[in-house]
Write a structure and sequence with these properties.
It is a single chain. With about 250 residues, the protein is mainly alpha-helical. The protein has one domain. The chain is about 65% helix and about 5% strand. It is built from 7 helices and 2 strands. Strands 1-2 form a two-stranded antiparallel sheet.
């Protein structure tokens, strides 16, 4: 793998940190384009992006610290996010909370903002997972498939679950952009995003090496089930509300 791309003196460019930065850039550009199509000014979108960036990094790191705190040799390592160690679900949950608060503060439709954010999150996720691959983390179980990858310090080739995740993120991004054209009510794209991501993550977790809890499921799978159910219920509520609104 290529955890370190460049090292000059005391400066080291980590592949994970670079890909996370590129993920945010791609997400920002997507949000600006989708927001413009939906009639939101660039100023509003960029303000929302600032809230998301801070909350996403904070949430993703907090979730990682909760699950993998035993891996840190010193407290200072908790702040070294450029070396890896972010949990997407943590970033997702904190970002949604931040966008809800942002919408309330600016008197904007919360679900309109979440619809714009959904494709941005998908493409950002796809790029960020490439950083995981280059960093040599988040790999899967041993595999003899032709595309299995030999990671450093591991004897057997493994499922490149990071690349599966990246591919899934691109597909979700394409699907959400396509559906945005035919959106019937605010919140529809956000709900689809939640459900599609939950399905992918639940399945991909079977190939990953993570602690198992209830019924042999990982923490991410348990969260996936909860978010999928939440997405279905929310979709039904918003769809019903939109139907009543059009009828009146």
């Amino acid at each position: 793998m290529h955890a370190e791309l460049l090292s000059i003196g005391n400066f080291t460019l980590y592949s994970y940190g670079l890909m996370v930065a590129l993920a945010f850039v791609a997400g920002i550009v997507t949000a600006l384009l989708v927001g413009k199509r939906d009639g939101l000014s660039a100023e509003i979108v960029l303000d929302a992006v600032l809230w998301v960036m801070i909350s996403a990094i904070l949430g993703a790191r907090v979730f990682y610290l909760i699950e993998y705190s035993a891996e840190f040799a010193s407290p200072l390592e908790a702040f070294m996010i450029w070396r890896g160690g972010l949990v997407f679900y943590g970033g997702l949950i904190f970002s949604v909370i931040a966008l809800v608060l942002f919408g309330i503060k600016n008197k904007l439709s919360i679900f309109r903002i979440l619809d714009i954010a959904a494709p941005s999150a998908a493409i950002g996720y796809a790029i960020g997972r490439i950083g995981c691959f280059l960093n040599g983390c988040c790999y899967g179980v041993a595999s003899e498939l032709p595309w299995a990858v030999k990671f450093p310090n591991l004897i057997q080739p493994r499922h490149p679950t990071q690349l599966y995740a990246s591919f899934a993120g691109v597909l979700i991004f394409i699907v959400l952009l396509f559906l945005f054209k035919y959106r019937r009510f605010e919140g529809q794209i956000f709900c689809f995003g939640l459900m599609l991501y939950s399905i992918y993550r639940f399945l991909n977790e079977f190939l990953r090496i993570n602690p198992r809890y209830i019924l042999g499921l990982s923490e991410a799978q348990i969260i996936s089930i909860g978010l999928f159910i939440f997405g279905i219920i929310l979709y039904g509520v918003l769809n019903n509300r939109a139907g009543k609104g059009s009828a009146s």
